[in-house]
Amino acid sequence: MVDDLTIRIATEIDVENIYKIHTEAIRKKCSTHYGTEDVNVWVARQNQAKYLPFIAANEIIVAEKDGLGKVVGFGHLTLEDSQESDGKSMQIRGLFVDPDCGVKGVGSALVKELERRARECNADCVIVQSSLNAVEFYRKCGFIAQEITTHQMSEQSCLQCQKMIKKL
Predict the structure, then answer these.
(1) DSSP assignment, residue 136?
(2) Better pLDDT: 152 or 24
(3) Of 73, 166, 76, 72, the residue nearest 114 (C-alpha)
(4) SS3 at position 38
(5) Taking every annotated instance into account, which residue ranges of this chain make up the domain N-acetyltransferase (predicted)?
(6) Residue 124 is inside which H or E element, if any?
(7) If you ran DSSP here, which 8-state letter would residue 148 be given?
(8) Which of 44, 97, 139, 153 could make an SS bond with 157 (beta carbons 3.0 to 4.6 A apart)?
(9) What pLDDT is attached to residue 168?
(10) What is the rounded distance in angstroms from the CA atom of residue 36 to the CA atom of residue 22?
(11) 41 — phi, psi (to 5°)?
């Protein structure tokens, strides 16, 4: 874990930073595995207001670099719609790190906190529909690959994702 990092619940004040990190990470990191048109559609679907209900529900956490007060990443955890096991499942709906922050370990620290929160909710597993560029990251965090899925972005754009599960 990164020593100079604070992970906390996001507030409305964080919306602009969350949006910036989200869109820049899509442009700079996801473009290695998805075409320009798909990336552009994905970025265009984002807007600052879409994060507000999730922030109000305390579903989004942010990683802040100590001393700078700068948000360098965020994660979104929610109750899973479908049951993957006999118990309760939680889903990571998004985890993005500022591609320019240069801090290593931010993503891993966010995953650990999301897992801790899932355990606190008595979940027995965490599921993620990983973008293809993040599959290896989630493997290193202990997630096991399941089937390839698709995420419809628009009538013309459909992204492949890797469903991954981690038992808690």
Answers:
(1) H
(2) 24
(3) 76
(4) helix
(5) 5-168
(6) strand 123-131
(7) E
(8) 153
(9) 95
(10) 16
(11) -65, -45
**CB atoms closer than 10 angstroms to residue 57:** 9
pLDDT digits (tens, 9 = 90+) for 52-61: 999 999 999 9
Q: Give, as one character, the DSSP assignment of residue 8.
A: E
- Report how far apart, in Å, the C-alpha atoms of 7 and of each of 4, 16, 71 are: 10, 17, 9
**Lowest pLDDT segment from 35-49, 70-84, 129-143, 153-167:** 70-84
Place of tokens 């020593």: 3
Q: How far apart are CA 59 and CA 78, in angstroms?
A: 6
| Tokens at 26, concatenated | 């899509």
* Residue 149: pLDDT over 80: yes
18, two tokens: 């969350």
Q: Which segments of the chain does DSSP mark as H helices, in order? A: 15-28, 36-44, 52-56, 106-120, 135-140
CA distance 161 to 163: 6
Residue 55 bridge partners (DSSP): none
Count CB-CB contacts under 10 A for residue 108: 15
Amino acid identity, position 149: T
Percent helix / strand / coil, the chain, rounded to 5: 35, 35, 30
The SS3 assignment for 18 reads: helix
